[in-house]
Design a protein that fits this description.
Helix content: 25-40%
Strand content: 15-25%
Structural class: alpha/beta
Shape: globular
Strand order of the largest sheet: 1-4-3-2-5-6
Low-confidence stretches: 1-12
Largest sheet: 6 strands, parallel
Radius of gyration: 20 Å
Mean pLDDT: 94
Number of strands: 9
Length: 320
């Protein structure tokens, strides 16, 4: 997508699209003059009903909602799918117009977001980066050690541009929510963060922009992670299980069963477990024993073919 397509869509539709920071800041000043509260939903585009649900919730809590669309290179490693990540501005724009809940779209350029330039090779990166120490190295941070540094950096930049009163994120990215809440606290940002419950398909699959990579055969078994972590949660809720190994046992069993079924049917893809995790909701420390009323996150990641799916359920808490 190029800037011309954004300009054309903005001219033809109802939502202004800002592809320079200076132009957006003029709009933001007008919101301040009108004493309007601003809600913010940062995205990488390829919008689905989960994103639109965040926008709707933001519109119910704030006077004006800003949606950013920016595929952030700093959160991708050299071997990951930056070039393949779906870029669908025209359909994203149409979805936001149809929602009647978005007041402005921020579509920044990489050159403005990273004035010192950006390379995917972390050892060669130059400039200023934000890292939330103690919450970024575990769970998703094990297979993707670069990820939360990139997320925290870009969200800080976007917060500085948008100056929102409230920011809205999806619970599907549970660790991200914990990291960003800590960042907002530690950097003394005057922003209230909301983590909104995961939007799911009818069969339980968490909505994700990467779901479009799944073939029909893959999609049929893609709920395996949600079924696995839900079974683990049931062992806590129904049986009062507190031992980590016993909690996770049904989850491992479900994933192994689906893996063997895929192999037995000779399907042209594999299922591979990346990890299962049970952590304290505040420290993200892995738990060997779950306290009776301890708030926790039960999460995991699996590969269905080459598509990596993540999901989580909350224990003893309603919102991150």
């Amino acid at each position: 997508m190029d800037n011309n397509s954004a300009t054309t869509a903005a001219a033809a539709g109802e939502i202004p699209v800002f592809d320079t920071i200076a132009a957006f800041r003029e709009w933001r000043k007008e919101m301040t003059r009108q004493n309007k509260t601003v809600g913010f939903v940062p995205t990488m585009g390829a919008l689905h009903e989960g994103h639109l649900g965040l926008v709707q919730t933001a519109s119910e809590e704030c006077d004006a909602v800003v949606v950013s669309i920016f595929v952030n290179p700093a959160q991708f490693a050299p071997h990951e799918d930056l070039d393949q990540y779906p870029r669908t501005f025209d359909t994203d724009y149409a979805s936001l117009v149809a929602s009647k809940a978005c007041a402005a779209i921020l579509l920044p350029k990489v050159s403005e977001m990273y004035p010192a330039g950006i390379t995917l090779d972390r050892t060669k990166q130059r400039g200023t980066f934000v890292e939330v120490v103690g919450l970024s190295h575990q769970m998703e941070g094990i297979p993707r050690p670069h990820f939360f540094r990139g997320v925290a950096t870009v969200v800080t930049k976007l917060f500085n541009i948008v100056q929102p009163d409230r920011a809205f994120f999806g619970q599907k990215d549970a660790q991200q929510c914990v990291v960003l809440r800590a960042m907002i606290r530690d950097l003394l940002l005057p922003i209230r963060m909301r983590a909104i419950a995961t939007h799911r398909e009818a069969d339980g699959l968490a909505l994700s922009s990467r779901n479009r990579y799944l073939t029909p055969e893959m999609r049929k078994i893609a709920t395996l992670l949600y079924k696995a972590i839900t079974a683990a949660k049931l062992s806590i809720v129904e049986q009062g299980t507190q031992d980590r190994e016993e909690i996770l046992k049904p989850a491992y069993a479900i994933i192994e069963q689906v893996k063997e079924e895929v192999k037995a049917q000779g399907l042209p893809f594999d299922v591979k477990l990346d990890y299962l995790s049970l952590v304290d909701v505040e420290t993200l420390s892995e738990l060997q024993t779950l306290g009776k009323d301890q708030a926790a996150i039960l999460s995991g990641a699996v590969y269905v073919g080459t598509t990596r799916l993540i999901d989580n359920v909350l224990i003893n808490t309603e919102e991150l």
